[in-house]
Amino acid sequence: MRLLLVEDDDRIAGPVLEGLGRYCFAVDHVKSGASALSAPAADLVLLDLGLPDMDGIDVCRALRARSAVPIIMITARSEETDRVVGLELGADDYLSKPFGVRELVARIRAVTRRTHPDRLAPLNTGTAMTGVPAHSSPHARLPEERGVQRLGPLTVNRRTRGVSVDSRPLTLTPKEFDLLAQLAGDPGAVHSRQQILDTLWGPDYFGPTRTLDVHVSALRRKLGDPAWISTVRGIGFRLTVPGDSAYT
Ligand code: CA
């Protein structure tokens, strides 16, 4: 796997490069938004949001507009809005400075397991690639159900990852689709927050569970009716067809 690190601060970039090297990742390092956008394609981008020439959010938007490369935002900012905007633009995860290399590697692995499980390198042994085979959790991958599911006006196509409501196609981020697919896999049933976090982010995700609420909100908005996804307080979420008494 080849990573692209976009970070202008050498005090952050130095230890990250050194640490990722120990975990046998090949890393290209650039220090500006412009050079990030002209860099060769990478398998995953680590993107600092505070860059000297451009707002990292704009870099994220530009990267996402042209490819599905997984993006992990790195932010020193405490404002939640930046993370929320970044996640809604299609970033896959974020890390707040300061962070440790082990945490970073766990996030890289979780994001990769979710997006490109075939690319996952063996678990780190610290010195060699010939380690323990990659851990593969049954919860980390979605069921490989084929075909099209219809729930009232909602159509979910797991083969093409296409979603429409009343034949109106929706543009979902990869995680919004995964979230919808999980809830739609058992409509009416309550899916616990932990089940969803495990499926979407992998069991070694350590981030704030608030991230899940951000995705639920975005998905509700795109579905056009908040009644599609109800919050079951203290437990999780469930998908129901609005107005369909079979689910009440
Ligand atoms: Ca910076």
Summarize the topology:
Layout (H helix, E strand, L loop, with lengths): L1 E5 L3 H13 L3 E5 L2 H6 L5 E5 L7 H11 L4 E5 L4 H9 L4 E4 L4 H15 L32 E4 L2 E4 L4 E4 L2 E3 L3 H12 L5 E2 H9 L8 H14 L5 E4 L3 E4 L9
Parallel strand pairs: 1-2, 1-3, 3-4, 4-5
Antiparallel strand pairs: 6-7, 7-8, 8-9, 10-12, 11-12
The site of calcium ion has 5 residues, from loops.
Can you give keywords for this protein?
about 250 residues; alpha/beta; Arc Repressor Mutant, subunit A; 2 domains; elongated; binds calcium ion
Q: Structural class, from secondary structure content? A: alpha/beta
| Shape by Cα distribution | elongated
Radius of gyration: 19 Å
* Proportion of residues in helical segments: 25-40%
The arrangement of helices and strands along the chain is EHEHEHEHEHEEEEHEHHEE
Question: Any idea of the CATH topology of the largest domain?
Answer: Rossmann fold
Strand content: 15-25%
CATH class of the largest domain: Alpha Beta
Biggest sheet layout: 5 strands, parallel
What is the count of helical runs?
Answer: 8
Summarize this structure briefly.
The protein is built from eight helices and twelve strands. The protein has 248 residues and is α/β, with parallel strands linked by helices.
Question: Could you explain how this protein is built, in words?
Answer:
With 248 residues, the chain is of the alpha/beta class. It folds into two domains: 2-125, Rossmann fold; 143-247, Arc Repressor Mutant, subunit A (Orthogonal Bundle). It has eight helices and twelve strands. It has helices at 10-22, 33-38, 56-66, 80-88, 101-115, 174-185, 193-201, 210-223, and strands at 2-6, 26-30, 44-48, 71-75, 93-96, 148-151, 154-157, 162-165, 168-170, 191-192, 229-232, 236-239. The strands form three sheets. Strands 2-1-3-4-5 form a five-stranded parallel sheet, sandwiched between helices. The chain has a four-stranded antiparallel sheet with strand order 6-7-8-9, covered by helices on one side. It has a three-stranded antiparallel sheet with strand order 10-12-11. The longest helix is centred in the middle third of the chain and has 15 residues, at 101-115. It is elongated, with a radius of gyration of 19 Å. The termini are far apart. Residues 122-146 have low confidence and may be disordered. Bound molecules: calcium ion (CA).
